[in-house]
Give the backbone structure.
Amino acid sequence: MTDSDWVRRAHQVLPGGSLGSFALPSGEETVITRGSGASLYDTDGREYIDYLLGSGPMILGHAHPAVVAAVRAQLDSGSQFYAVNEAAVRLAETIVAATGWAEMLKFTSSGSEATFFALRLARAATGRSKILKFEGGYHGHHDYAMMSTTPSVPAAFPAAVPDSAGIPAVLQREVLIAPYNDLQRTLELLDTHRDELAAVIVEPGNRLIDPLPGFLEGLREATRRLGILLVFDEVVTGFRVAYGGATSIYRVVPDLTCFGKIIGGGFPLAAVVGPRELLEQANPRRRGPGYVYISGTLNGNPIAATAGLATLEELRRPGVYEGLQAAGDRLRGGLSELCAEMHLPVQTLGMASMLNLYFTASPIHDYRSARTENTAIKERLGRELLRRGVITNMSAKLYLSTAHTDALIDLTLERVAESLKCMADLRHNSW
Ligand SMILES: Cc1ncc(COP(=O)(O)O)c(C=O)c1O
């Protein structure tokens, strides 16, 4: 059976032959059978340099020996207990200690569940129901989060545009949308809706767009003053941009943080993290008025917790984050140079070991300015790279791991150069 047979089989039973919203370009699809280090292999044995990295969790690369060994050992001792278990306690302690400010956490199985429950905790704590999020911000797939993440026709602020069919219309009124990085406008909205808002949720570097100086600080000050909780979504940035996450870089402390991806070491695990006072609302021994239900069959699963612990242990080794930063800089720098040589306007956004390309010369500071980019170039580059054995999610971001050596990054850049050269047809039309 060839890889194209597998692609056909996938299309028979999985809508679009995909697992979620991500789908490889039609005609270039492939089915992955294994991963090792920075590489993925399809069912024909073809190798790809991997910049998906499982959508972020695989910061040590695929099948890292330390993670594999830890998981193997745990497998022999059982894979799911529902009861509190040693690995979960250890991981909770490790995460709480890494933040330097939180005291407790509740585990969930996905980042979406973490943001969903963080908002529930905020509603219970404040007695208010609305939340404010930023246009272009992605916080997972639940009905409150899937508002104005990628609106094709953005609405006037603060109206929310649902990103999916099937979301109850009534919830549109529960979510207010603000322009990211526009502190003045956001403060006005917070002030106007101060008695209705339970929380502001924000990814500190919203989809890799840096916060302007003073933006997060201004949000922190206003939310504290108005009694609105500030929720950081660090599902992507947690333990990726630094061991303490984006909070440790921007030095703004939220009321609650959501972690995911890396803390599960490639297994389903995420968490809502915060002070005792807020997390104790979800203490099952205190059921009654004010009790917040947060639970799930696999929450705190010992295999996932073990993988997370092994991953975080590796990340604590001296020099790891410096290496990841250098890898990110090498790729960002190389991409910028290649595009400059081709007179192709590009911006490489992103910090540390992640990046996103925006083919536009206009400065990007929010969702609307990001929409000035030429998506046709990006899509085509993704397709050309895939043909040359480099797998990416160009419309989201490229992730790097400790397994992305200089040699692999240079090989990637060679393939980018080849790809750009053969995109001459686009060149005549649109750049
Ligand atoms: C910033 C952010 N928050 C939340 C989520 C949702 O996490 P999950 O896909 O694990 O539900 C994602 C997923 O990519 C994300 O990027």
